[in-house]
Design brief:
Helix content is 53%, strand content 6%. By secondary structure, the protein is an alpha+beta fold. The strands form two sheets. The protein has a five-stranded mixed sheet. A two-stranded antiparallel ribbon has the order 5-6. Strand 1 and strand 2 form a beta hairpin. Helix 6 packs antiparallel against helix 7 and helix 13 packs parallel to helix 14.
């Protein structure tokens, strides 16, 4: 029987079985929401314009906390800055579980710093942040690697001699190259064939994961994983990247100098050696490869897209670009590279970077979380392992925190005296010191010198 006939028939049979069984009752006392259908959940009640539009419409009816069934599984939506902060900060431990992303789950399987849970996630996150912040005495810091790449970008742009340039490829390249420098201890030429292959695999995978077929796969992965689809192409792409990382790890083993670790892989290998007698250690080869892959996931797409939006906003709002340029001239000048220490002296540039991240709204529905236990929240009882979507867009466009939320305006982050003003609603990539926030802020700040 042809696959084109088999797949709809299988889906129909599954639907009929669930219709006869009825929709399973969730434990606990979930927040209210639209009544779900068996198997389909609230799919037929969603707006065709997309998930975010549907969520915003449901918020008007059900408030800041409500439940939506994405296929057969319930997902609790958290809207508004205060609600998200109450969950992810005030009840951080209960909401600290990492949600599963079906299209890449076959690759990560709960390993690596992004998709790990519990103690594994805590250990890997702590190690990754500490390693990226400071490689130690005598070793190049992340800041120096970013400065080097920013200079390479400037030189590449100068080659155009004022001609038209599409910056998309270069913005992707510099982001990936900084992570390559951190993880592998080397940067690549922008025309290096191996580097171009890695870039193609990464951005092809991101595009596939964002496609309509992948969104359908997220809803019904337990059934669709047995059939061909974009999830298999994503799996193949990421496994090829993992093979490259694994080969690099072996070369690092052969050339490792314990007294002078060069990069993230060297530092991790030294920790593996230190913990080799511990049977429960999280520092093993699988976590090394998948944490390295995680660093690319955390820092490539979000950072390069933020930079791209930043260039577009500066082109659209020349008065903003003029003020940024003036502040750069005053603080840095044209004869040296920007440094992290300059940041505190450049409140307007910092406010522009924050407003770019707020207005671009790159992760509107946030990264999925899972509650680690039965959790009392705003009068409801959310059962253990229930998925949580922090709708970050509702925080970034909260009129209680931003005077004109639908307008690009750096003054949202400046007080009456022109000093930088923090906002509790500013959570472009969720709450806490996540790795991609760290990379994004550094990249955005240093590269701003070329505008």
């Amino acid at each position: 029987m042809e696959l084109s006939i088999l797949l709809p028939l299988t889906l129909l049979m599954g639907l009929l079985v669930l219709l006869f069984r009825g929709h399973p009752k969730a434990r606990g006392h979930l927040p209210p929401g639209p009544h779900p259908l068996p198997f389909l959940g609230n799919l037929l009640q969603m707006n065709r314009k997309g998930l975010l539009t549907s969520i915003l419409q449901l918020r008007e009816k059900y408030g800041d906390v409500f439940t939506v069934y994405l296929g057969p599984r319930p997902v609790v939506m958290l809207c508004g800055a205060d609600t998200i902060r109450e969950a992810l900060v005030d009840q951080a431990e209960a909401f600290s579980g990492r949600g599963r992303i079906a299209s890449v789950d076959a690759v990560f399987q709960g390993y690596g710093v992004i998709f790990a849970n519990g103690e594994r996630w805590k250990v890997l996150r702590r190690f990754s942040l500490a390693t990226m912040r400071d490689f130690g005495m005598g070793k190049r810091s992340v800041e120096e690697r970013i400065q080097e790449e920013a200079q390479c970008l400037v030189e590449e742009l100068r080659k155009s001699q004022g001609g038209l340039v599409d910056p998309l490829f270069l913005l992707q390249s510099i982001t990936a190259n900084i992570i390559c420098s951190i993880v592998f201890g080397k940067r690549f030429d922008y025309k290096d064939r191996q580097f171009l292959r890695l870039l193609d695999l990464f951005y092809q995978s991101f595009a596939l994961a964002s496609s309509f077929s992948s969104q359908v796969f997220e809803l019904y992965s337990s059934l669709l994983k047995h059939f061909p689809g974009t999830h298999r192409k994503i799996y193949k792409n990421l496994q090829e990247i993992n093979a490259f990382i694994g080969h690099s790890v072996e070369k690092h083993r052969e050339t490792l100098d314990p007294s002078a670790p060069r990069d993230f892989i060297d530092t991790y290998l030294l920790r593996m050696e230190k913990d080799k007698s511990d049977p429960h250690t999280e520092f093993h080869h699988r976590n090394l490869v998948l944490t390295s892959l995680s660093l690319f996931f955390a820092g490539t797409e979000t950072t390069s897209t933020t930079l791209r939006y930043g260039f577009l906003f500066l082109l659209k709002y020349p008065h903003v670009a003029e003020r940024v340029h003036k502040e750069i001239e005053q603080v840095i000048g044209s004869h040296r590279q920007p440094a992290l220490d300059d940041r505190t002296k450049m409140p307007y540039t910092e406010a522009v970077i924050c407003e770019i991240q707020r207005f671009a709204d790159l992760l509107p529905t946030g990264v999925p979380h899972v509650v680690t236990k039965d959790t009392h929240f705003r009068g409801f009882i959310i059962p253990k392992n229930t998925e949580i979507f922090p709708i970050l867009s509702t925080a970034l466009h909260d009129p209680r925190h931003f005077e004109k939320p639908d307008t690009f305006n750096p003054d949202h982050f400046l007080d009456a005296k022109g000093a930088l003003k923090k906002s509790e609603a500013f959570m472009p990539f969720s709450m806490g010191n996540t790795i991609h926030i760290y990379l994004g802020c550094h990249l955005g700040h240093h590269v701003s010198n070329i505008t």
